[in-house]
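seq/struct pair 1
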Amino acid sequence: MECGQINFKTMELLDRANTTTYGNPVPTQVRVTPIKGKAILVSGHDLKDLEELLRQTEGTGINVYTHGEMLPCHGYPGLNKYKHLAGNYGGAWQDQQKEFDAFPGSILMTTNCIQKPRDSYMNRIFTCGLVAWPGVKHITDRNFAPVIEAAMAAPGFATDEPEKKITVGFGHAAVLQHAGAIIDAVKAGKIKHFFLIGGCDGAKSGRNYYTEFAEKVPADCVIMTLACGKYRFNKKEFGTIAGIPRLLDIGQCNDAYSAVKIALALADAFKCGVNDLPLSMILSWYEQKAVAILLTLLSLGVKGIKLGPTLPAFVTPAVLQVLVDKFAIAPLGSVDDDLKQALS
């Protein structure tokens, strides 16, 4: 529980650092199809690395695309002001070998989530910060000249693909600006339930559960999502409800802080506990960050979380029993049964 509280404070500090530097995220449409021209793809999580690259590529004619957990960067005014931040390319981390192979430019990996690079793009992938790979050029001083040179040497996209856009930027500040309308819609019966469907993605079978769950959520319910788990369904059309999009992309994995802030604010507005809200959490986990975030939710007293697609290997039967007894945590069942239980 103490670990969860410390992680909550850590996410709060990171949120404050990001928002005071680049502004609070605002709902922003992001192009998810490429445009003609030279290109650089940025993956990982680090906003500062992206800002430096955008600054250094200004006026070069190179378009910069986000990948993976960098998608939420488009919602920050301090980053979106760069006109050559062209859009988002690809999906979650586990597809990167295929996606990087097909990307006709250079690639910059920040923080983590790198997979073993294929030989086909080894000479145009670069690392910086805390991530590295044997044989890949590592940049230590944020001088991205080698990345820019590799992008100029690569062919780039030959043509514009048909335009398609999705919306990001629903951090806690943006959502809570509409808290009054959301609360009124709940009281009027227009919004029946909120689902937080997100977390880590991965290649293991069973993760199509999250796609099917999102598709089957009734039209009078709102879906909040975050982290790379959203790539299972974030390019699908979910429409609007009570004047707001039914799918609210809250941000990166660390932006679980925003989800907590939204839940706490709604609980305060309805004068009830978080567990009394019409809110269900359907989480996918993969590694340490996800476990830290789960501990944060437990330390805040959140109960009834559905966790999958499989439970962490270190959750022994005895530990699982504690989680079940104290927090009513449960593994995923069938989509229909879990949805029926949440709405009952």
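seq/struct pair 2
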Amino acid sequence: MNNVEVKGFWPDEALPLVDTFADNFVRGGEEGAALAVYRNGQPWISLWAGVRRNKDAEIGDTPWTENTLVNVFSASKGLVALRCLQRLEQAQLSLDTPVAEVWPEFAQQGKGGITIGQILCHRAGLSAFHERRADSDIFDWPGITQAVAAETPWWEPGSEPGYSPFIFGWIVGELARRLAPAESFGEDFRWLTDSLGADCHFGLRDDELPRVADTGPLKTSLQTLVGGEQGADSAYLGRLMKADPRGVTNRAFANPMSLMISSNSRAWRQAQIPAANGHCSARGLATIYGALVSGELLSEQSRSLCWTPLSQGQDRVLGVPLRFGAGFMLTQDRQDCRFGSSPRAFGHPGAGGSLGFADPDKGLGFGYVTSRMGQSLLIDARAIRLIEALYSLPELAQ
């Protein structure tokens, strides 16, 4: 094994995976990270190593632990989608239900026919705000949801796929909130996580802030870590944004600019930005996906919506081919979008590297979190190596 102290628990047969996790620190520039895997609803593997850095002088740097929290960015989307699916099931509503049936104000600007399913699979044309928003807007839930309700689709809803980096979360979160007896989406989500003992949160309390790791750029190139086809990265995204400064891709990620530069701030950590500011431990992510796979959280009919394709094709915002179920990205035969070996695998990567996914055929719930942000738009090279090592274990390789 590499000269890295990996803590946690794992069966003997998982030593190759532990070695790969350690090697990500040696060759991959990892500074602090954790990996957890649930199998058939039970904890199977939990690894952590490195340092949790925090710029707050009163908190400072400490060793990474199993309960260290980190912003998982778009890996949050699977969590908010799950909560929405639970609330839809309880209310006996389908994906064909218009959003405006639950949220009447949403019908403005010709959006009355947009369905909940179109939102969840990114086919509603609501990928970005047209008009410039103030930086502080993203921290004001009533104000930002009112702005979303007044927004106009960028194209005919249902006609084309277009990833929604941030607006997705406010729509899906508001739907869940309106279907729940809760003051906020974050409060409603805590009812789910408290029942599971899952360490994942939207809107951190004061006493949770000391457990958060600051995120920062990865200082090592990942090109040599994996072979084969390389996926789209942030440089590619930057070219798309520069090609049309007023276009949907630019506005989706940089309107307002606080969406790109505020993620280590206290305001961001305590706000509710469900598409991008879930703060999770690796075990928290794996707990939720493990419970979802084992049938604890949704009926079989609702659960199948997670892996049933609802949208596929060249995405108008990210410029790459994507497949989506009801809020979850679906596996593809491409290295940066392959969730293991199951054709029914589903989950969501987050900017920089964090990842949560489920494999219903192998009974797995997977959670990986990192504080050093790589450049991939989808699955990071460090996570690719971990997935490949996991599925090479004798118990899963059959």
